[in-house]
Design a protein that fits this description.
Strand content: 15-25%
Number of domains: 3
CATH superfamily of the largest domain: Response regulator
Number of helices: 11
CATH architecture of the largest domain: 3-Layer(aba) Sandwich
CATH topology of the largest domain: Rossmann fold
Strand order of the largest sheet: 3-4-5-7-6
Number of strands: 15
Helix content: 40-55%
Shape: rod-shaped
Length: 406
């Protein structure tokens, strides 16, 4: 609580005074826009930005805390004129008057930024920025086109990058002013001409950094519509990484810088050679594998194929085996037949009349040639023929009778 001095006037502590002044300032000056030049810029490791905002007559300390600074789409630089949306306050520990900056824009861009946002919303609602409308970039462009000013440093950066990455890709430059009055219409016409000539597989629309006024041609509606109407994929690389234009949203691909745009569309020759070597190695391995499989198949078939000479040898061997078996079978058959023939011969020999006659017997026939077995059939005086073992005799029956009893 404030104390009183001897005269009855309140006595404030330093802290109380600082707090009262802070509250008074914050009530009297709510958020407002303050214009000035950045000086003494000190980015802290915490992410906060500390700087002085000054003009010719005065200066004021400023702080932009990390959460606010992270939303800046451009990079604050020493000497840059800006407009800060800030809270007027007092830093009590030091008793220092300062501005707590909530947002910040480059001086003079307030109206332009409003135009930027209005056009962005309009074209976005039309579907001009739709992801499905984006065209894919060629993986291996045969020719690259560059739409920019012949005096632009960005052109040298792009050509140097393309030559370094892949000097074998031809480049066509379509010269056009990239800033100033009428630049947007001329850029749009040059994009239409490049599309009509259809000489390239991809176009780079590039420009180096600058203020929002310098880059404003790329925030004009004709350029955005020309990009989408172009029959060739368009890569936009305008300004620095923190610069964003309507052309970036309309492009098929956005690159943070002109150099990055060149790198995006040009396959590095070294990478291509490495890829070719990898593919060659893979093809070699695959070819070797297929050859090895083919050799295995041939070997398997070779094991199933018999050489004619070997087949003839095998046939001869089989024929010899069959002939030997046949001879053996025939020999056994002959032996059996011979044995049976001998038996038959022995049987026949026992029945052979000649053999009987040789033992002293004879055969007698009557006149009719009938063999006589019974003497009763013979007539007396009948002529008989008797066959002996050797020769025959003819006789006449004189008398007959039964065999004598022994």
């Amino acid at each position: 609580m404030p104390q009183e001095n001897g005269a009855g006037a309140p006595v404030l502590s330093v802290a109380e005074l600082a707090r009262d002044v802070r509250e008074l300032l914050e009530r009297r000056y709510p958020l407002l826009w303050v214009a000035g030049e950045i000086s003494g810029l000190r980015p802290a490791s915490s992410g906060h930005l500390y700087f002085v905002l000054k003009d010719a007559q005065a200066q004021v300390d400023c702080v932009m805390f990390r959460g606010r600074a992270a939303h800046l789409e451009w990079e604050p630089r020493e000497g840059l004129r800006v407009e800060a949306h800030a809270l007027v306050t007092l830093y009590e520990p030091r008793g220092r008057f300062q501005l707590n900056v909530e947002s910040m824009r480059r001086a003079g861009v307030g109206e332009l930024y409003e135009r930027f946002l209005k056009l962005k919303v309009k074209l976005e609602r039309e579907g001009l920025f739709a992801p499905e409308a984006k065209r894919p970039l060629p993986e291996h462009p045969r020719r690259i086109g560059v739409v920019t000013s012949l005096q632009a440093a960005a052109l040298r950066d792009v050509l140097t990058t393309l030559a370094r990455r892949n000097p074998s890709i031809p480049v066509i430059v379509y010269p056009v002013p990239v800033q100033g009055e009428g630049a947007a219409d001329r850029i749009a016409r040059m994009l239409a001409r490049a599309s009509e000539r259809a000489e390239c597989d991809v176009l780079l629309l590039v420009r180096g950094g600058g203020s929002i006024e310098d880059l404003w041609a790329f925030n004009e509606e004709p350029v955005a519509r020309a990009i989408r109407a172009c029959g060739i994929p368009v890569v936009v690389g305008v300004g620095h990484e923190t610069d964003t234009t309507i052309a970036d949203f309309a492009a098929d691909r956005r690159a943070p810088t002109p150099t990055a745009a060149a790198e995006l569309v040009s396959p590095a020759r070294a990478e291509l050679l490495g890829r070719v070597l990898q593919l060659a190695a893979r093809a070699s391995r695959e070819a070797r594998r297929r050859i090895e499989y083919a050799i295995q198949s041939v070997d398997a078939l070779a094991r199933r194929i018999v050489h004619p000479a070997a087949r003839l040898r095998a046939s001869r061997q089989l024929l010899g085996q069959l002939a030997a078996r046949l001879c053996a079978a025939m020999g056994r058959r002959f032996d059996g037949c011979a044995a049976r023939l001998a038996l038959a011969r022995a049987g026949l020999q026992g029945l052979d009349p000649g053999a009987v006659l040789a033992r002293g017997y004879s055969i007698t026939r009557d006149e009719a040639g009938v063999v006589l077995r019974d003497a009763a059939r013979i007539r007396e005086g009948e002529k008989l023929t008797t066959t002996l073992a050797k020769g025959w005799i003819e006789s006449q029956a004189v008398r007959k009778g039964p065999l004598p009893n022994h």
